[in-house]
Amino acid sequence: MFQRSCYVHSSAVQCQKEFRSLSNIVLFEFAGGIRCAKNVTIHNAAILSINAGEHWLGIGAADNSLSLFHRPQERLGSFSGPGSKMAGWQLYRTPQKTVAMVRCIASDLERKRICSGGRNGLLRLWDATINI
């Protein structure tokens, strides 16, 4: 453990401590009572939007990929597989990548929908094709 200054966004945030666990996960504890519990790489490009609900997590990235993760109520706290990056969460779908660079993402997690807007003006609504 050691003291370190951390900078988040355009304004400075004072970091009280930085911890490094045995599995090399970096934990930060900020003066405001918030800490980063885990860093996970899910996409190969910048993440444009995140929409989280109790059982749903929608993520849109600049590499034109969109992901919708689901965590069933009866599986809260369980693991989705050995060595899983996101314990308890299952990848529900990843729609096909588009040719146009995605610029914005919005998701309706209860209806299992993701809407993407491309740099070429194309707006796409991705709707679930199976029931959970």
From TrEMBL:
| Gene source species | Pisum sativum
- SUPFAM superfamilies per the UniProt record, alphabetical: WD40 repeat-like
- Spell out the coiled coil positions from the record: none
Q: Protein name, please?
A: Scytalone dehydratase, variant 2
